[in-house]
Fold this sequence. Notes:
Strand order of the largest sheet: 1-16-17-15-12-9-10-11
Oligomer: single chain
Largest sheet: 8 strands, mixed
Order of helices and strands: EEEEEEEEHEHEHEHEEEHEHEE
Number of helices: 6
Radius of gyration: 19 Å
Amino acid sequence: MWIADQWKDYEVLxxxxxxxxxxxxxxxxxxxxPQVIWxxxxxxxxxxxxxxxxxRSKKGGGEWEFFHLPxxxxxxxxxxxxxxxxxxxxHTGLFPEQAVNWDWFSDKIKKAGRPVxxxxxxxxxxxxxxxAAAAGASxxxxxxxxxxxxxxxxxxxxxxxxDRPVRWLVDDCVKFVEREIRRGNTYDAVIMDxxxxxxxxxxxxxKIEDAxxxxxxxxxxxxxxxxxxxxxxxxxxxxxxxxxxxxxxxxLKKYNGHVDSQEIGLPVTDSGLVLxxxxxxxxxxx
Length: 286
């Protein structure tokens, strides 16, 4: 398992009975987590001193309950700064477990010794975009949500990265990739963080089990003659790391490289154990 254990401003303090207690900078949040199926005593005082609690509804969705929590605040990861705000369906605008991937590809970009063009699909609020830009890459950031792209730009400004070569695009990721293939554009690296389920602007249904392999196949056509890496993230429990390895290996076999896929996770302070947070598949050049 790859563990995001370099955070100073974030930690999972405890987790039990379908929920996790997290510290986001100076604030404590309780949020649901489907992986937390164990029932252990909730002894950490933060369970009672929380600043925000997202309550799931039995009918689907849910709502926040706040206790002295600002509308927006910041946390830092190394040289990056992120603006947080609780919004729909339990999210804060950041997936902290992805830091283990940011560190991995940032190191590859810095050591490449050449200009690196990165395509970041389903780019959300820009965590991977900021990490790649800070490492020296030029990045094309694509997300279908105008609000998320605006949020990512705000994070870039807060991180002092507004002058970096980033293209911010509000677009359907699959359609954008298809157009880029027709244009003959290429990239040295691809990052994709697709949702498990979603709907496009015209009601198109995205289901990761059906759509992920065709998208990997499409993106393989965008790779340059000397690709550096290809990263796929999945939060769907049905997609085991070995499935990611199989798809990446079959679609990138013409390139000289290797694939490794693992669960990713976050350390839990109280228990000393690791909370699983999905899986990542990594192809990298030899």
